[in-house]
Sequence to fold (195 residues):
Amino acid sequence: MTSRLPKLVAFDLDYTLWDFWIDTHVHPPLKRHHVTGKVIDSQRKPKTIDFYRDVPQIMHRLQAAGVTIAACSRTDAPSLAREALDLILIPPRTGSDSSAKPIPAIKFFDQLEIYPSSKIKHFKKLHEKTGIPYDEMLFFDDEWRNQEVEELGVTFTLVPNGLSDRILEKGLEEWRKRHPVQVTEDAVGVDGILI
Fold:
């Protein structure tokens, strides 16, 4: 089985990486507790701002593999989304040095396309900024309508209940099936003639 990865993996935010709509369920300002590192909003009963359970290790895995990581969100609260990404701390990679410190989530993202617009526009911007071909992009989103990015050649994976290791593997498997490793060597027969 191949372990080939796309050059770019993009994630929606709301109900893909975290379990809320940043523009309707979260009330600024956000703050991170100085001891626990937990991020909360400013409601009377504060909402915890955090990723789904598997997301931190997925980010470490993709970053370690050299994959470009992007956020693509059509939220009406782009500055609040960026603030949340800046405040959420991703714990050190499992099995890493005990002296390793948590890292702000925003540092894992190479590209941020967070503004009200279609996902088509987000991906055209990503392509323009990175030069990465659409067929080398994989996108995870909780809304089926955003499958429209496949018109560009991007592989889309639906995230029905938050990103998990299982959903990541499903998306990677689909991307690999659509883009098998290309063999670029010429096949030469026993007599030295190209086959």
